[in-house]
Amino acid sequence: MIRFDLNPRLEGDSLPVADLPLCAVRLMKDANYPWLLLIPRQSDLVEITDLAPEDRLQLMTEIATCAETLKGITGCDKINIGALGNVVSQLHVHVIARFRSDAAWPGPVWGAAPATPYEPAAQERLVDALRARLIA
Amino acid sequence: MIRFDLNPRLEGDSLPVADLPLCAVRLMKDANYPWLLLIPRQSDLVEITDLAPEDRLQLMTEIATCAETLKGITGCDKINIGALGNVVSQLHVHVIARFRSDAAWPGPVWGAAPATPYEPAAQERLVDALRARLIA
Predict the structure, then answer these.
(1) Average pLDDT, integer, range A6-27
(2) Domain assignment of residue A2, yes or no
(3) Would residue B111 count as lying in a domain?
(4) What's the pLDDT at A2?
């Protein structure tokens, strides 16, 4: 069995949505943007190139699934995808639904606006909708 | 033959390095960070999900190749990867060598510091080194 420890900051900033074959998918607790984190459930990963080649391809498949799911649910103007890891080194990929009206447009979301909590019912509806499509 | 027009802003901000099977690889004219652009040579692409599924996997392979090449040449502290496209919609992927000492660390590079031209000999050395590894 592979040990998988989620970084405490990633865990605190997000909520569990679904487990795909490679990644844990989590929703950032930030109502400014519908924003998913994909975290491969393997230990000691920092760069995408730390994944085995076949897992890199699975990561791309899961990024595309999350992008299409977010686009389908939100009708966003653009999807932003990023793997930065300058602050939290554990490998994680951001898949973010962007709107021309959002708090950071057209800039990147990182460091742009303070996280705003979801209204609880809206958060539950979004998590349920994401889960229904991702687990289907 | 597939028509492929490079967006004028992407073209003006960067220099050609190499053609991989899917993407044109270009170096951003910004000495703040060794920074590659990967642009799939197909028309009318905006999102990664506009690529056929097999081309998405090829894109991941080429991202990993560029990441390993940049890391090998520069000895950087971290690779940043991003597909944003909020300003220039033509699909392009950033693969950036980051250093703890660089102008934007630990933030993202986009919008952080004005582009600084390379000293011509340094630019030529970097392009030659990239080309030698990417075309090998």
Answers:
(1) 97
(2) no
(3) no
(4) 59
Residue ranges in B14-119 assigned as alpha helix (H): 53-74
CATH number at residue B121: 3.30.428.10
Listed in sequence order, the residues at least 6 apart from A64 whose beta carbon sits closer than 8 Å to its beta carbon are B48, B49, B53, B56
Q: Which is nearest to B48 in space by CA: B6, B1, B8, B81?
A: B81
* Residues B71-130 pLDDT 10s: 999 999 999 999 999 999 999 999 999 999 999 999 999 999 999 999 999 999 999 999
pLDDT at A98 over 80: yes
- Over the stretch B11-29, which tens digit does the pLDDT of each residue have? 999 999 999 999 999 999 9
Check CB contact under 8 Å for B110 and A111. no
Does residue A3 lie within any of the structural domains? no
Q: Which two tokens stand for residue B93?
A: 């992927």
What's the rounded Cα separation, in Å, for the pair A56 and A40?
10
Check B49 against A61: CB less than 8 A apart.
no
Residue B109 lies in a domain: no
What number is the ipTM of this complex? 0.96
Contacts of A69 (CB under 8 A, 6+ apart): A130, A133, A134
Residues of B with CB under 8 A from a CB of A: 46-49, 53, 56-57, 59-61, 63-64, 67-68, 71, 78-87, 89, 98, 105-108, 110-111
Query: Mutate which of A23, A61, A69, A81 to disrupt the B interface (most B C-beta within 10 Å)?
Result: A81
Q: CB B60 to CB A57 under 8 A?
A: yes
